[in-house]
Amino acid sequence: MSIQEALRKAEEYGLDLIEVAPQSNPPVCKILDYGKFKYEMEKKMREKHKEQKASQLKEVRFRPATQEHDYEFKLKSIKEFLENKHKVRVFIKFRGREIIFKERGLALLERIKEDLKEIAKVEVQPRMEGRQLSMILSPISGKK
Fold it and tell me: How many structural domains is the chain composed of?
């Protein structure tokens, strides 16, 4: 129907003529109450945002000479973060002359990777950034 005829019918019912699919040929319009239409669209958007859960990037710091108990404690924290669907940035901070023991840091990151291989995958491989060595782990999607 023509635009003028559609506008006349919309006025007759006391409603608005709303274009719902402008990219189609010919464009599709509906006769609706615009306020109600706008409210329902906002409600749908709120529901969509409510369903989304933003994952955060958590950080866990180690030192090249981290002792066994501290390692186990921090590994437990990493597991909790991964179970809550957060990404984890694990980094090893070198201070002073510790920088010459980069291989200890790499070995520690490899151990972490091996201990978490069932629940995490490496998103960013270990790399040096100044005086710290870091990698990012993300949860495996099929796991809880």
Answer: 2
In a domain, 37, yes or no: yes
Domain ranges, residue 126: 57-139
User: Residue written as tokens 């669907």?
Assistant: 85
Statement to judge: residues 42 and 23 lie in one domain: yes
Which residues are within 8 A (CB) of 61 and not within 5 positions of it... i.e. 6 or more apart?
91, 92, 93
Instruction: Flag whether pLDDT at 140 surpasses 60.
Output: yes
CA–CA dist 32, 17 (Å, integer): 6
Helix (H, G, I), strand (E, B) or coil at 119: coil
Same domain for 103 and 43: no
Q: Does pTM top 0.70 for this prediction? A: no
Asked whether the bond before 26 is cis by omega within 30 degrees of 0, the reply is yes
- The Cα–Cα gap between 121 and 25 comes to 47
The span from the CA of 55 to the CA of 58, in Å, is: 9
